[in-house]
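Milestone M4 deliverable, item 7.
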Amino acid sequence: MNEEITSTSRDNDRATESQETIEQSKKIDELEKENIELKDKYLRLGAEFENFKKRQARLFENMVDLAQDATILKILDILDNFERALDANKSENDTQKIIEGLHLIHKQIVDMLELQGVQTIYPVGGSFDPELHESVGSVLCDLAENSIVEVVCKGYKRSGRLIRPAKVLIASPNKTENETDDTNES
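Output delivered:
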């Protein structure tokens, strides 16, 4: 009988140990699963932070570019006025020193704009492109339709972006007598 009690006691101990092993195994599985989830969250958070830093850097660059473009736009208005003054004073010899000064100022502004990466759009003789040009009128002439006849105001771009379109006059073909007669008959 003692052997039966000892045998039953051993069976109970084994069953308890087996049950504890199963519970420990389940606990290990749960902890491993939780560890995998935490690692995944950590990696995702790191990737999101890197994306955030990149977005912020692009946003900052765009803000700087827009601020520079606004400044450049103001300077371009000054440049236009200097160019008008230079054109108006070409015939007067008495104001030679003033003209020389205006030329120097003009050159300084042009050089400063070039250092900022500003490119001039001066499309005389080219074809009208609504992405780069603004038509302010048309001229009857023998050139192909929508050819640029005259630039009223130069255009400017920087870093591939248009700051101001070139204001241009475009060609409007002369109508021949036959075309004129056809339109009158209709």
